[in-house]
Structures are given as structure tokens and as C-alpha cells.
Amino acid sequence: MEFGRSLTCVIGARGTCKSTLIESIRFAFETDGARVATLVKDENVGDQSLPTFGIIKATLRAGSVRCELERADNGSEHEVTLEREVGGQPRIFLDGVREHTSHDLLGEIEVFSQGDLQRIAEDDNDELRLALIDRPNRSQVAKLNTERRETAEALSRLGPELRVVRGRLSTLDHEVTQLDPARSQLDRLTQAAPVASPELEAERQGHERRQRVLGALKSAEAERRGLANRLAGVRASAHQLAESVATITEDSGDTLADEMSPLEELLGAVGELTTVTSKIDAISLTRLIEDLERRFEDASERYYQLRQQEQAVNESLKQQHVLKRQVEHLEQLRSEAEGERKKESDLLNERRKLRGKLRQIDDQLYDLRIAEIDSINDEHGDTVQLTLSSSSNTRAYADHLRELLVGSRIHAQEEVARSIVDRLEPSTLIDLAEAGDAHQLADLLGRDLGQMTRIVAQLGDHDDLYDLETELPANRLEVTFFDDGEPKPVETLSKGQRATALLPIILRPLPYPLLFDQPEDDLDNSFVFKSLVATVRQLKSKRQLIFVTHNANIPVLGEAERIVVMSMKGPKSAAPALTGSVDGRKQEILNLLEGGAEAFAKRERYYGELLAESND
């Protein structure tokens, strides 16, 4: 069937596949993955309680859905075709050519099934409400959400790295406290030491130079072995990568011939790395070290003899040698501690940047939504007023924190967790836990210091502490409906009024089609005539509208461009649809939507007196 460019109304008796039509288009465009899973009867994902569960799988079986569109892009007209069967993904053809790289088109349609307005209007459906606000900026919002998720994951990984660095730093700092006492002892021993003969002193200096050379060689060999160990997995990864590329090449044939160059470059780079790894494995300093140890031992023989001959000097030199080695070791540890301190500083700077980036992304999302909300309020402020609030105080944050406190034996864990979530952002809590600052936590929460000390200890040692920062802030869209001028929160309204309050968010002049299955199911009849029809008449010149309806006011008073009449030719098979204008299909409108000519005439006679009074 073909739809009009402005308003098309699909009518028919109950059970004539009208909803199947709408859901088939949803399926083709992959609009709402969870709903599509329901349509194709995916028991693992789909909601089996919905009346549309399995409807596409039962309808299509081995067949497919095909949608053809005319699409304007930068002043040019393009013909777009979507095809899809159960078990496959949508195939997109742009001007007859298969499109592989971009699937943005799949988001360029808006579909509302029966009862969707009521579901969106429920108290806890902030996510669905925000999705309506985000629709005009769908691509930008999706990009920001992806960027936020990647940033949050990087932030979560950084925390354990920082914990490891701080653990090493604490150990090193503790050992380095012995450096100054060791230096002082060495200075005193050196000043009080007896004077050695010039020959012994020269031999001693030569011996120590040789020992330094050996020490440096052993250190280089240790570093080589460590590097070889770290690169040990390269060969296995290279082998796995080569197998994957071979599989891709074999299974794709010529399909990806032009796209294989990045994979080939990657294989080449990994091959070079494998070659370097093999060289590092093959180069060993052990034999050189062993040879030098023998040669240096021979070269130091005269030094040992002279030390034996000058016993007092020898004893002093022994003590000096031990202390020097100790000081050198501690200085090495101090150098390592400075390196760890630099790592800690770099990680803290990186964390500040990531936290700032998260806040920036959240602000961008908030600003996009506020701009849309302001636009809706400007246009429909006399009917509804939208307000957006944002907070880090989320249910996910609270649930996660309660999980971290399990097993801590802290009294009133639920109350404590709630108090923390109400007062502290996740980043602040993490900083306090890392610092072990129970005093500040107790001051901020106004709670017992002993209890806060146990909480800090529990959180500071928990592996999942840093996942707290990955939680999205709570964005809540509050809707106020003006009932005869009186403002009422949407949560206090009847079901019909709740749906009515959401319509201005849906009926906007956006640049893609809107499909609505029986909107009147969720609305009062008076509102359909007074508001919905009037809005539709204005909107249809700016946006393609496709409504399935049983209410005559929408096609007749909305002046539909096209009427599609659906019927059945058998119990499970739809007949070809009839199409035409309102005038051309007035008989079907009268029979299907008004109950037939006799019913319509009887109502007219019944209400005749009231209608006359109304006209007067």
C-alpha cells in the first residue's frame, strides 16, 4: 500500500491486520530493539505479555517486509528501500545500491503502538519520556552516550590502577625511611676509618668499579627478561590474528577485497613485533655476566690479599661496603618511589580530566534536552509545562552502594547507604574512601565516627568501588498539565489526561514520518476533536503522518489526504487494501467508523434537539 505525503488514515474492522501493518514497519526500521524482539518471539528478550508477541514471526514466516521511501537530502531526492526478514538485519538500498556503511536511516521514523502513550505516562518511565525529548537530536545524543560510556569505563579502570600504584608507593616509602640513618652511619664510619695504603685504596676503587659494571649488567638482564615475559603473549596473539584474517578472507571471498588493506597492515605490524620479540628472547646477557664475574674475580684477587694484610682497614672496609650497598639499594628504592609518585600524579590528573569530561558530556545532554523542552513549552505552555531535573542521586547508585556494604556488619546499612547517596556524589565518596578520611565523612553525614571508619575501610578495600562513577545521572522529566487552567502534575491525572499531556511532545514538526496506532485509545473523545484533530491539521503540512484509527474525527475533520481501508479475505489472510480520498472512501468511513448510515441517522435524530440548541 502507498501512503500520502501528509496525513494517511488506516481504517478497518477489528482484526484486519492494521496493527500488523504498523508493527511490520517498526520491524523493518528496527525501531526499539526490545519491542522488535517481542515481535519476532524472542523469549530471551521479548515481553510475552504484550498482545503483539510473535506477530511478525507468525505473519512473515519465510517472507520479508519491504519499505520504499522518498528521501530529501541536501536538496536532492533519493529513493530508499528497506528489506528485512525474521532472523536477519535490515538491508538498505540507496538509489538501488546496497548501503553498508551507514544505518542512520533506521532512526528516521517514529512509531507508537497501541497503549504506548499510557506506558510512557507511567510514573517510573523517565527513560521513555526522555527518549521523546531526544528524538530530534537522536544521532547526537547517541554519540554523546557512546562517548560517555567509553569515558566512564576508562574512569572505572583507572581506579584499580591507582590503588596498585599507591600500594607499591606505601611499601617503598616505608623502606626508604631507613635511607637517612644509613647515610649518617656510613658518614661516621668513613670519617673514623683507618687510612688504607695507596695500593689498597687503588685496588678497592678498581674492585668497586668492576662490581658496579656487574650490577648494571645484571640489572639489564633482569629488565630484558621482564620485557620478554611481557611480550610472551605476542606470538599467540599474532597466530590468532592470522587465523582470524584467514577466516575473513576465505569466507568473504571478493566481497571485502578492497577493505582488506588495514588487516594486512595490522598483520605486517604484528609480524614485525613478533620478530623483535624473538630477538629479545634470543639475546641473553647471562654468559657475558658469568664470564665477567670470573675475570673480575681474578682481577680482584690482589685486592682481597691486601685486605687480609691490613686487618683493621679490612674490617672498616667490610662495614663500609655493607653500608654502601644498603644505601645504594635504598637510593634505588627512593628512585622507584619517585617513579611511582609520578605515576600516581599522572593517574590523578587523568582522573580529573575524565571526571571533567563526564560532567561536560552530561551538561551537553542536559542542554540539548532543555532546548527541546523550552521549544515545547513556548508552543504548548498553555496546555503543558515540562521541567527537567538532573541528579547523581540515582537508584542504581544506591543499589550499587548497598551491594558494596554487604558483609560489613555495619548497623542500619540501608539507612546509611541512603544518607550517603543523598549527600555525596560518587566521585566524592571514592576520594574519601581512598584517603581513609572517616572524619570528613562523619562530619558530612552527621554520623558516628566509629561507624564511618568501618564504612571507609569496607569501601576502600572493595574491588568494585570504582564502578560507582559509571552510573548515569538521574534525569527526570516532570510534566505539568493545565486542567481548565489549573496546573496538575501528570502523576495525579487520569490515564486519559496523562496521555493528553504527552501529545505535545509527540506531535512535533520533525523531519521524519510519524506512525500512530489508535491514538484515540488513550485519549478522551472530546480531546480528540478539540485538540488532536486541530494539531494534526497543522502538523500534516510539515510531517508525514500515518494513523491507524477507529475514530471518524481524525480522518474526516483532520482532512486526511489518503484513506487506506483494510479487510480480510480469509481467517488468516488480509485482502488487498483499498485506498482513496476522504470523499472517495466516505462509504467505508461511514460503515466502519460511524456504525453505518442507520446508526449515524439515529444518533442525529436522538441528538437533534441538543444540536439545534448548540447551533443557536
Structure commentary:
There is one protein chain. The chain has helices at 18-29, 33-39, 55-60, 116-121, 126-134, 138-176, 179-192, 198-230, 233-252, 261-282, 286-299, 301-309, 311-380, 395-405, 413-423, 426-435, 438-445, 449-460, 495-506, 525-539, 553-557, 586-593, 597-606, 608-615, and strands at 7-12, 64-73, 76-85, 91-94, 97-99, 110-112, 384-391, 474-483, 486-489, 514-517, 545-548, 562-566, 568-570, 573-574, 578-580. The model has no long low-confidence stretch (mean pLDDT 86). The protein contains 24 helices and 15 strands. A hairpin with a 2-residue loop joins strand 8 and strand 9 (486-489). Helix content is 60%, strand content 13%. The chain starts with 6 loop residues before the first strand and ends with a helix. The protein is elongated, with a radius of gyration of 38 Å. A six-stranded mixed β-sheet has the order 6-10-11-1-12-15, sandwiched between helices. With 616 residues, the chain is an alpha/beta fold. The longest helix has 70 residues, at 311-380.
What is the percentage of strand-forming residues?
5-15%
Radius of gyration of CA atoms, rounded to a whole number: 38 Å
Strand order of the largest sheet: 6-10-11-1-12-15
Number of strands: 15
Tally the helices: what do you get?
24
- Which residues sit in consecutive blocks of at least 5 with pLDDT less than 50? none
What structural class should be given to the helix and strand makeup? alpha/beta
End-to-end gap:
44 Å
Helix content: 55-70%
Mean residue pLDDT: 86
General form:
elongated
How is the biggest beta sheet arranged?
A: 6 strands, mixed
